[in-house]
User: Which sequence fits this backbone?
């Protein structure tokens, strides 16, 4: 074995020992409040990646889509057509708020979505709930942030995971969450005139 | 309608007009080089969310997993068991590098993965290729970054999308990419002693 390889392997043995020790201390299981925010891509799609994992592990799950309702998104037809039993799929919103241009209707849709979300989170059969684009509804105060945070902190069953996605997550939600990821836009081809494309954006 | 609602609706009309104008200028379709990097979560799972969209839209796709090979990941069994025709799934790596502790074997595995990756990218039947955790292989120089970037820029078919995931993406790759998202860790429950959990982490 070359000297470089031996050095590398020794370094990796050290890393492994440190990781093993760290992992020993991680014993707690609990349902997480997760937030995906930021201007970058991947907020919803990583939520749907987790839904794929849940279905594979036979973890009953639910999705409530707050905004993208009238789009023919790949994830909606995929889950509704193939996994209606494994993953309940609800739509409350009717498109982005600049498409509906009707605040009263947006509020009614958001409130309906939140009512469904609470039912799913409280349902003992459901272990993972994805609240897709709920941050948009919170940002425009279609939903009351204090009520949402209070519900998550006091009424969510201990082992139930909830993932909330969308730009501009409110500070109160970030404070309450266990795991927050900000998707940061480093480069985006929209700037260069490339359209939203099937499979990638929706 | 209340005054607040009217103001809101007028603002949304303006936003919609600006967006419509912007979208008119976006007419180009092309296969993208996408990178998901950063320390936050969602790099792989958003890749698998796009795979879900591809399957739904009947876009033939392929996955090459460079590192997580010997994990029983939800995405691997889900895709292999249910979508072997729609999504080709290859595994080259045998675990994180600190688990194998054998640089020569890691290099052989990475090279094998890259050989498969090139075949899939060049295959005219395949329109989306996910190179999961390839950035780890590039970071440790198991693969030559110049060769990978050169292949993507000069040999990738025009309409084929390639998504490369993993921490510490090399600057050369970021420079070459069309779309780069950095997943930034804002908060992580590992710090508080919570273990990696099914459905969420794998």
Assistant:
């Amino acid at each position: 074995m070359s000297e470089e390889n031996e050095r590398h392997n020794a370094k990796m043995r050290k890393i492994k020992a440190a990781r093993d020790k760290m992992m020993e201390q991680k014993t707690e299981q609990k349902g997480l409040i997760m937030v995906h925010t930021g201007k970058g891509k991947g907020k919803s799609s990583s939520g749907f990646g987790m839904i794929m994992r849940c279905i594979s592990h036979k973890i009953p799950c639910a999705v409530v889509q707050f905004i993208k309702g009238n789009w023919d998104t790949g994830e909606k037809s995929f889950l509704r057509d193939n996994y209606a039993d494994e993953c309940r799929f609800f739509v409350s919103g009717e498109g982005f708020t600049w498409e509906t241009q009707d605040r009263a209707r947006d509020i009614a849709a958001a409130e309906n979505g939140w009512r469904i979300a609470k039912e799913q989170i409280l349902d003992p059969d459901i272990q993972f709930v994805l609240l897709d684009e709920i941050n948009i509804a919170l940002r425009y105060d279609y939903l009351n942030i204090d009520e949402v945070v209070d519900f998550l902190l006091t009424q969510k069953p201990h082992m139930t995971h909830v993932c909330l996605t969308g730009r501009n997550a409110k500070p109160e939600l970030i404070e309450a969450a266990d795991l927050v990821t900000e998707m940061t836009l480093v480069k985006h081809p929209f700037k260069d005139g490339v359209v939203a494309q099937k499979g990638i954006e929706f």
The longest strand of chain B covers residues 179-187. Chain B touches chain A through 85 residues (CB under 8 Å). Chain B has a mean pLDDT of 87. Chain B has one domain: 29-192.
